[in-house]
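FAQ: What does the model actually see?

It sees only this:
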Amino acid sequence: MINKQLVIDALDDQPLVPVGKYKFIINPLTEQVPATSAELLQAAADWIVEVGDFSRANKIVGEEDKGAILVAATSLATGLPFGMARWYPAGLEGQVSVHFEMEYTSGELFLNGVEKGDQVLIVDDMISTGGTLLALIEAVRLAGAEIVDIVCVAEKLDYGGVQRVKDETGLTVKTLVQLLMEGERSKVIKTGQGLIEV
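And it is asked to produce this:
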């Protein structure tokens, strides 16, 4: 039995910090405030496995800034290997580099571990404007791999990232929890189970 409520509680009614015209959510899953419990990480990974189409994937991919712990936990839960996009170059043969722009910063992503012909499932912690995810999709495609599914733990509804990814790539992003980012605290309004009383 997956403890989905643990994931919901970790993201609901959490402090929001303004960064420019956007808001940043302080929470235990992505910011380790307070520290991420093993139970929370396990629940998030198990929920990702339940929602994602891992039957067609031979590799998991994510980016290391905040998604790395989820990618690693999902790899352990499924037995699939993973590739990782980093924010710094390693200069390794086969590394793919793409530019990204997100709501807080911009730079380059450097993808390792993905090869031509791979069937990739992307796992990430959160989608806001979709900038980082768009870059990750581009990198996977440049490596010659196919994306079979995308699962993000949380979606900031106010910022439109899921629709932007759909419009620009044709890919659907599955999310476990949808958040409103109004006011001073986050509000979970929907999960994979449906609407929540607000």
